[in-house]
């Protein structure tokens, strides 16, 4: 059975179980889940190859996953998405914005300049990982992706870059954004926008702000930009079209903002989440987590071995 994107969070949660898991094991579970996704992508490419549809091997996706597990935040990333945490300055008034997960893309110059130049990361793009996908006569790779047919080592990697951070009382919120957001805003600009506005609908507001910037750069108003068709080109690739389509002006933008209110007494009934894929505002799953914590805290017979760690898994896919 193939592991779909929608079941990624559930898979990680099930693997963690209800007991305490050391950080190194959590990282292994996250890496294992990414490996399952990559295996399924490769299977799709193999099926397309056998059916004389080698173009399936150029399908790919970036993925940014964040797991809040106990008092730690685990962030795993492949592709050009990014996670930025905002926290109070330890040495005085004000705040700081810091990357938790950076772009794993060859478009990021500081990434290229690292010693030994780590591979660009993504899910899929099998033709850049296994040479036999390029030998089919009907196969024609996009110009920007062409490599020698006889390469012996994978050009790309599906192993995520995982970072671990202890949640502190000074932490305010985390911004998760796909590559389209960070092509228009710096870390500081995004953090300042979120920090200076009310929480209600903040992710949608930030995405809207980014689209407005893209419109201004193209000499359009926001309302006119929203009338431009979305197009069918894959996000992140050069768009060639005789008609105006959205990828000409900006890459796909997905945003999630998570506030870290560790010590605040908040009524969980007021928690809501904005689901960007369906434009729906629904009760947040955090309500269930807080109810679990409260029940276990009020239960004197509850033993540590039976405690369930509060966890949430967030993921952003950018194809």
Automatic annotation (TrEMBL):
Region Disordered, residue ranges: 295-319
SUPFAM superfamilies: PP2C-like
CDD domains attached to this UniProt entry: PP2Cc
Gene3D superfamilies, alphabetized: PPM-type phosphatase domain (3.60.40.10)
Bias-annotated ranges (Basic and acidic residues): 295-304
PROSITE patterns per record: PPM_2 (PS51746)
Organism: Trifolium medium
Domain PPM-type phosphatase: 1-260
Transmembrane segments: none
Taxonomic classification: Eukaryota, Viridiplantae, Streptophyta, Embryophyta, Tracheophyta
Pfam families: PP2C
InterPro entries: PP2C, PPM-type-like_dom_sf, PPM-type_phosphatase-like_dom
Protein name from the UniProt record: PPM-type phosphatase domain-containing protein
Domain of life: Eukaryota
Molecular functions per Gene Ontology: protein serine/threonine phosphatase activity
């Amino acid at each position: 059975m193939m592991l779909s994107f929608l079941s990624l969070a559930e898979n990680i949660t099930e693997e963690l179980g209800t007991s305490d898991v050391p950080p190194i094991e959590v990282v292994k579970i996250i890496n294992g889940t990414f490996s399952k996704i990559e295996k399924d992508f490769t299977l799709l490419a193999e099926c397309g190859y056998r059916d004389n549809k080698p173009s399936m091997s150029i399908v790919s996706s970036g993925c940014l996953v964040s797991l809040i597990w106990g008092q730690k935040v685990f962030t795993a990333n492949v592709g050009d998405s990014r996670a930025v945490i905002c926290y109070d300055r330890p040495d005085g008034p004000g705040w700081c914005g810091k990357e938790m997960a950076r772009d794993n893309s060859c478009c990021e110059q500081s990434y290229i300049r690292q010693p030994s130049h780590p591979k660009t990361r993504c899910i899929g793009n099998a033709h850049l990982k296994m040479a036999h996908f390029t030998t089919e006569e009907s196969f024609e790779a996009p110009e920007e992706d062409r490599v020698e047919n006889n390469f012996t080592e994978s050009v790309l990697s599906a192993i995520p870059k995982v970072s671990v951070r202890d949640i502190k009382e000074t932490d305010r919120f985390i911004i998760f954004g796909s590559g389209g957001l960070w092509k228009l805003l710096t870390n500081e600009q995004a953090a300042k926008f979120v920090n200076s506005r009310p929480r209600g609908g903040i992710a949608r507001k930030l995405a809207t702000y980014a689209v407005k910037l893209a419109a201004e750069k193209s000499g359009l108003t926001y309302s006119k930009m929203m009338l431009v068709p979305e197009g069918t080109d894959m996000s992140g690739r050069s768009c060639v079209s005789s008609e105006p389509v959205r990828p000409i002006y900006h890459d796909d933008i997905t945003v999630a903002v998570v506030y870290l209110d560790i010590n605040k007494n908040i009524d969980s009934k007021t928690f809501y989440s904005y689901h960007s894929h369906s434009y729906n505002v629904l009760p947040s799953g955090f309500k269930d987590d807080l109810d679990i914590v409260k029940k276990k805290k009020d239960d004197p017979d509850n033993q540590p071995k039976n405690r369930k760690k509060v966890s949430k898994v967030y993921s952003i896919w950018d194809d």
